[in-house]
Every structure is written in structure tokens, then in C-alpha cells.
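[Automated response] Your request has been received and processed.

Submitted sequence:
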Amino acid sequence: QVQLVESGGGLVQAGGSLRLSCAASGTILSIPVMGWYRQTPGNQREWVATILSGGSTNYADSVKGRFTISRDNSKNTVYLQMNSLKSEDTAVYYCKAFRFRDYWGKGTLVTVSS
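Generated structure:
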């Protein structure tokens, strides 16, 4: 069982930055894939970024060059550094872990004002 708790969301002006954190229960060394997704009202959850246990990363085209996903195994935490934020980045951001099955956090709201 993996429990995930996101934090770091809030209100920021367009062009600003935020760093989201996803704290996992237990060691994340045993979790092969961790990622961030986002969702706006009335829309499906959208993939944002993924990081593998070996450190490889992938990003959605919409955030490439602006967002950076990273993991600190010593803190059992995955981060999403978001720079040059746009109004269209406004969403609830969810952390996901995959180990035999998907585990989701409850999300953190990011609001970007234009």
C-alpha cells in the first residue's frame, strides 16, 4: 500500500513559479514509476510528467521546458517545479505512483491568475 500526500499548491501570477511536493509513505525506491497529472472541472485527468526509479523523465508537450520533475529518495518525495506558469496551467494537480497498481494522492490546487 502506498499513500501519497501532495502539497505546495496555491495562487500565483502568470509568469511565476511554484514547487509541488508529493510525499510517499515508505520508501519510494521500490516504486518504479511516479508522476504528476492535472485536472480541470469537466475534463479528464491529464498526464503532466513522469519520473522512473532510475531517474528518467518525460513531459507532456504543454509543459516541456517549463516544468521539471525530480525525486529525492532520501525524503521519499517527488517534486514538480513549475516555472513560467500560464493561466492554462490552473488545475488540481495529482501525484501518482505505480507499483503493481496505481496509487493516487488527493490533489493540490494550483491557480494561475492572468
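Summary generated for your ticket: DSSP finds no helices and eleven strands in the chain. The radius of gyration is 13 Å.
If you did not submit this request, please reply to this message.
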